[in-house]
Each structure stands twice: as C-alpha cells, then as structure tokens.
C-alpha cells in the first residue's frame, strides 16, 4: 500500500477500539449504502464514507486520512462481491480486521455478470435494494437493540417510497407493445433494474466499467448493436457525445443515460433521486422504442 510508513505513523496515535457508541458510527463503501444507512439509522447512526466523495470505487487508492477514519467505526457496510475490494487491505493496515462487516446483500439472488462471475450491482434494483435495506435494519438492531424499533420503522417507510417509484414506472409502461423493443446497455449492472420492470437486455456493449472506446472498439460496439437489432441504448451519464453520436448515426438507435451510482455526492436522498432518474430514463427510452411518446 502506498505511503505505508506515513500511514503507520498516523495510526500510532489512534486509540484502541472502544465499545460501540451511541449514535453508532457506521462506515459505507458505496454511495447507495450512505443513503440506506442514513434513512434507516436516523438519529441513532452517524454515516461515515470510507472513501472520499467523488472517488471511483473501481480505481480508488486509499489516503492516510481515509485509513485514520476507520478507527472511529463501530461497523462498516460492504458489498462483498469485489465492488469494494479496497476495504480489506485498509482494515488490515489499521488493525481493524475484527470490525463488524454488515453485508445486507448476502442472500439476495444475483444475476450473472457480463464478464463472468456474479453481478455485484444488485443495489441498482429497487426490489433487491428493498430486501437489503430491511436486512440492514436487522443488522443495525443487533448492534443497537435499543433502537431496533426505530430501524425497523424507518426501513419500512423508506422501502415503501422506493417501491412507489417502481410502481409508478411500471404503470407508465403498461399497455406498451414491447415486442419490438430491443435494449442494449453499456453496463451490465443495469440488468437488475430492467429485471424489476420485466424488461430484457439483449446486449451489453461495454462490459468493463469506465472505458473510453478506441476507434476499433467503437466499430465493434456498433457492429454488436446492429447484430442484436437494438433500437434503444442506455449509456452512462459521463460518456462523451463524440462516442455516442457515431453510434446513433450508424445504428439509428435512440440513446438515453443512466447512472450506476458510483462516485459523486453522498446524501440521504441521493439513492431515491438516482433511482427515480434511472426509472424515468428507462420509461422514456422504452416508450420511444415502442413507438409512443413518453
């Protein structure tokens, strides 16, 4: 790990772990988990991002100050499927191997990833997220039994709002002729959200996250879209128009943007905002591909 001597020097000043505080201090490795813990924990929990706002978990390199922050935690919420692989070396460097890991996604049915193995993005699904939020409430209650009722009620209210968003999207898709809709995405994680809506993804044209395609890769993407007879492509928020314009021009498919919620701000309402934006974009794209105005 980089700058290890400086890190160790900082850690010498950190006191040994103490009994769980109130409010609990719960670390999170991904943006959605910040929203989940903030909503479920309420005033009984302080949420502590393990990585700084705006950092990409796929390429994150720990800083000394990030390691120091781990010493204050009572528990940390983890994905546990490789999405936050940076965490274990951090815990080892700080002597926090015994820190409680809350893994609400354990037991959630997983889709296969486009590059093999399990798809780690189950948090993008409203239904899977709701299941994980309820599991998180149970795990927090084990750490803080006095607030178990608060956690349970907060989780109930929160998941009801999320499911309401999904119900609204399903209602807007009702009656559409989906037989001609052929969907491609640039990220395999979105398959979870499409599954919530009863939609199939015919092609994933950029299975590795964050890559800017070369000219040859762009040509291959266009060929794959044509081969799959795709008429609507869901791409990442940050993908440049200079890559999208040739796809649109050469394939004739409509292009809409989604977010996979990695990086950016941490806030209590972000997961709801991003989920609503994703659902709205999917409804608009599918409706356009089905031949009706959204």
Features:
single chain, 294 residues, alpha/beta, Rossmann fold, 2 domains, four-stranded parallel sheet, 10 helices, 8 strands, disordered N terminus
Report on the architecture of this protein.
It is a single chain. The chain is of the alpha/beta class. Helix content is 43%, strand content 11%. It contains ten helices and eight strands. Helix 2 links the parallel strand 1 and strand 2. Helix 1 runs parallel beside helix 3, helix 5 runs antiparallel to helix 6 and helix 6 packs parallel to helix 10. The chain is globular. The N terminus is likely disordered.
Spell out the helices and strands N to C: HEHEHEHEHHEHEHEHEH
Summarize the biggest pleated sheet: 4 strands, parallel
Classified by CATH, the class of the largest domain is: Alpha Beta
Helix count equals 10
Give me the side-by-side strand order of the main sheet.
2-1-3-4
**What is the average per-residue confidence, as pLDDT, rounded to a whole number?**
86
Report the end-to-end length measured between terminal Cα atoms: 50 Å
Number of beta-strand segments: 8
| Rg over CA atoms | 21 Å
CATH topology name of the largest domain = Rossmann fold
Strand content: 5-15%
């Amino acid at each position: 790990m980089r700058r290890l001597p400086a890190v160790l020097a900082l850690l010498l000043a950190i006191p040994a772990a103490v009994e769980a505080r109130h409010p609990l201090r719960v670390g999170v490795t991904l943006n959605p988990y910040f929203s989940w813990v903030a909503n479920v924990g309420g005033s009984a929990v302080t949420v502590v991002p393990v990585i700084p706002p705006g950092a990409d978990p796929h390429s994150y390199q720990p800083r000394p100050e990030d390691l120091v922050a781990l010493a204050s935690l009572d528990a940390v919420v983890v994905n546990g499927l490789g999405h936050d692989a940076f965490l274990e070396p951090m815990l080892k460097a700080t002597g926090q191997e015994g820190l409680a890991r809350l893994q609400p996604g354990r037991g959630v049915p997983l889709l296969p990833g486009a590059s093999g193995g399990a798809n780690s993005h189950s948090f993008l699904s409203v239904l899977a997220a709701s299941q994980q939020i309820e599991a998180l409430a149970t795990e927090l209650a084990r750490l803080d039994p006095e607030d178990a009722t608060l956690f349970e009620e907060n989780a109930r209210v929160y998941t009801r709002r999320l499911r309401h968003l999904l119900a609204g999207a399903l209602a807007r898709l009702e009656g559409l002729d989906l037989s001609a809709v052929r969907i491609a995405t640039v990220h395999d994680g979105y398959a979870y959200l499409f599954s919530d809506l009863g939609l199939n993804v015919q092609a994933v044209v950029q299975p590795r996250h964050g890559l800017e395609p070369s000219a040859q890769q762009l040509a291959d993407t266009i060929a794959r879209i044509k081969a799959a007879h795709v008429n609507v492509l869901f791409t990442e928020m940050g993908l440049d128009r200079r890559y999208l314009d040739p796809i649109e021009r050469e394939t004739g498919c409509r292009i809409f943007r989604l977010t996979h919620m990695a990086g950016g701000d941490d806030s209590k309402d972000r997961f709801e905002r991003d989920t609503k934006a994703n659902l709205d974009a999917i409804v608009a794209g599918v409706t356009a591909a089905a031949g009706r105005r959204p």
